[in-house]
Every structure is written in structure tokens, then in C-alpha cells.
């Protein structure tokens, strides 16, 4: 490990989201000596429980259990700077339903302190304090649709995007710290070409990933136009950590499920990695294909 000036902030909605989307990225930059901060917005109290022996958990009990799972996953990765937005339990998992097309949607009923119902300024200010104290050059969260429509993912996106703007303003809440401008905001996304490649293999093996969804509709789930992907952090050097961290979330993840078998196939493909879109801030330098370093092109003499 060599110490760098790199500082990275990741904002995820629930425990396990970091392990399904960001382990290789966190592990890589920790290995380089960067400071990596993870903010989780809820305890995931309304997650779908995968193990029958835990099906009796109340939302509060599941939230407490998922905190333990998250701690185990972060131990695997090596993340030591982790916070819950506003403190553990400040924002409750909003839950999720499906619309007539099978897409994720906002449920009709949710707890009063559900993250979806959070006052956006209040939530953003919790994150402003984190941004100003950690001073990340790069911040990562979901796209405006929350990648697949989960309301808490959408709200995490809104919260980070607003907080980045507020954190840079000298006029906004000086009591929360000195202003800090995040140089680049990235949105995690599917590595489209690798998902398509893995899907073909999964179908050859007879894995049914999305029952009741026709193949043309299924391909819409692969991700954005590959030309929009600006960076890919390769998975292979940290593949075992990726799998161990994901496996730590046993209440939510059954690695034998067809989807997670497909996901494993995708991770093993040559060139597979965690893909990103440019949300805002400094573009990457021109090059042949996506950058391999989320900090590429950032001038650290001005970003300290």
C-alpha cells in the first residue's frame, strides 16, 4: 500500500448495496492508501429476507441484523470510515413495490421517517457535514432513476447531488465546516456489454433471471449505451473480496439464486468491472474507451 491524496465518498441506500455495486472500487482505492468514506442512508429494515429461519424478524430486528451484516462486509473490504446518514435509524427503509410492468415503484404506505419522505435539505445537510469534513475529490452514488427505480436509491441520488452543491457554497451553513467542492460526481451503473455477455452464458446454462419478462424487455436491464460509460474499475484483482462481502449479507443475498449466479458469471468475464457515468464535475481526459481510474485527470495540487 502507498499513501495517496485520494479521497473517495460513496453514498448507498441500504446495507448490501455497497457490496453488490462498489466493493472492487472501495478495495482498490483502500489498497492504494486512499481515504474511503461510505455513507449508508437507511438500515434496510424492509428488505426481502432470503432465509426462512429469519422470516420472523420485525423491521426493527432486521435493521439491527443488517447492521451486523454490514459490519462484517466492511471488515472484509477494509472500510473503517462508515456512517449512517444522520445517525443509525434516522431514516427508515421506504420499501418498494412493483408497477404493472414489473418495474420498481414507490409503495402506497411507508413509515413516517421513511427516507423517501425525508426533507431533502435536512438530509443533504447531514451529507454536507460529511463532505466538508472528509473533503472527497470524487463522490459516487446512483443515477437519477436509482439504477432500477427503488425510491431510496432515487433519494440517495437527490441527497448527494444537492449536498455537493451546498457543500461548495461559502454562504451555506458555515457551522457545518469550511466549503468544499467535490471535483467529480459519478453514478454507478451496469457494465452494459459485460451484462449482455453474461446473460447469453446464463441462458445457455438454463438460468431464468427474470421470470415472466420477455427477452427483449430483459435486455433493457443491461445498462446504458456503452458510449456513456466513462470509467470502469476492474473486478478481477478483488474478486474474492467482492464475493465474500456480498456473501456477508445473508439475509438479503442467496448466492445460489439464478440472478446471483448470473452476477458471478459476469464478474469473471475478462475486463469486467464496476462501471460509472459522469454525473457532474470534471470530465475525464480523452482516451480510448472508459478510464480505469475514477480520479484520472484530477489535479491534486488544487484539490487538497
Describe this structure in words.
Its EC number is 3.5.1.103. GO terms for molecular function: metal ion binding; N-acetylglucosaminylinositol deacetylase activity. One of its GO terms (biological process) is mycothiol biosynthetic process. It comes from Tessaracoccus flavus. It is an enzyme of class 3 (hydrolase). The protein is of the alpha/beta class and 304 residues long. The protein has one domain: Rossmann fold, CATH 3.40.50. It contains nine helices and nine strands. Strands 3-2-1-6-7-9-8 form a seven-stranded mixed β-sheet, with helices on both faces. A two-stranded antiparallel ribbon has the order 4-5. Strand 4 and strand 5 form a beta hairpin. Helix 3 runs antiparallel to helix 8 and helix 4 packs across helix 5. The longest helix has 19 residues. It is globular, with a radius of gyration of 19 Å. The two termini are 20 Å apart. The model has no long low-confidence stretch (mean pLDDT 93).
Core attributes:
9 helices; 15% strand; 304 residues; metal-binding; 9 strands; two-stranded antiparallel ribbon; EC 3.5.1.103; alpha/beta; Rossmann fold; globular; 7-stranded mixed β-sheet
**Total tally of structural domains:** 1
CATH architecture: 3-Layer(aba) Sandwich
Q: Report the count of strand segments.
A: 9
Q: Strand portion, in percent?
A: 5-15%
The coarse silhouette is globular
Blueprint (SSEs and pairs):
Elements: E1 7-12, H1 17-21, H2 23-31, E2 35-40, H3 59-77, E3 81-84, E4 97-98, E5 104-105, H4 120-134, E6 138-141, H5 151-167, E7 184-189, H6 192-204, H7 215-219, E8 229-234, H8 239-247, H9 258-268, E9 273-281
Parallel strand pairs: 1-2, 1-6, 2-3, 6-7
Antiparallel strand pairs: 4-5, 7-9, 8-9
Helix pairs in contact: 3-8, 4-5, 6-9
Amino acid at each position: 500500500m502507498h499513501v495517496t491524496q485520494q479521497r473517495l465518498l460513496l453514498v448507498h441506500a441500504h446495507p448490501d448495496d455497497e457490496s453488490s455495486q462498489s466493493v472492487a472500487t472501495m478495495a482498490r482505492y483502500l489498497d492504494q492508501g486512499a481515504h474511503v468514506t461510505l455513507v449508508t442512508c437507511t438500515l434496510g429494515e424492509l428488505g426481502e429476507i432470503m432465509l426462512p429461519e429469519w422470516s420472523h424478524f420485525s423491521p426493527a430486528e432486521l435493521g439491527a441484523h443488517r447492521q451486523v451484516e454490514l459490519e462484517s462486509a466492511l471488515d472484509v473490504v477494509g472500510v473503517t470510515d462508515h456512517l449512517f446518514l444522520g445517525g443509525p435509524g434516522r431514516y427508515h427503509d421506504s420499501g418498494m413495490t412493483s408497477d404493472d410492468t414489473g418495474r420498481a415503484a414507490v409503495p402506497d404506505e411507508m413509515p413516517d421517517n421513511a427516507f423517501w419522505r425525508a426533507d431533502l435539505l435536512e438530509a443533504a445537510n447531514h451529507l454536507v457535514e460529511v463532505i466538508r469534513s472528509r473533503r472527497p475529490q470524487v463522490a459516487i452514488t446512483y443515477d437519477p432513476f436509482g439504477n432500477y427505480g427503488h425510491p431510496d436509491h432515487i433519494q440517495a441520488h437527490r441527497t448527494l447531488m444537492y449536498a455537493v452543491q451546498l457543500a461548495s457554497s461559502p454562504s451555506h451553513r458555515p457551522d457545518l465546516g469550511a466549503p468544499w467542492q467535490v471535483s467529480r460526481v459519478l453514478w454507478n451503473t451496469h457494465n452494459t456489454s459485460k451484462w449482455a455477455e453474461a446473460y447469453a452464458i446464463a441462458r445457455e446454462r438454463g438460468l431464468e433471471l427474470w421470470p415472466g419478462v420477455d427477452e427483449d424487455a430483459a435486455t433493457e436491464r443491461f445498462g446504458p449505451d456503452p458510449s456513456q460509460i466513462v470509467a470502469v474499475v476492474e473486478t478481477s484483482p478483488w474478486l474474492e473480496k467482492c464475493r465474500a462481502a456480498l456473501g456477508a449479507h445473508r439475509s438479503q443475498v442467496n448466492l445460489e439464486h439464478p440472478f446471483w449466479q448470473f452476477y458471478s458469471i459476469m464478474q469473471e468475464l475478462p475486463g469486467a468491472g464496476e462501471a460509472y457515468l459522469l454525473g457532474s464535475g470534471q470530465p475525464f481526459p480523452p482516451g480510448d474507451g472508459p478510464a480505469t481510474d475514477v480520479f484520472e485527470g484530477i489535479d491534486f495540487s488544487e484539490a487538497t
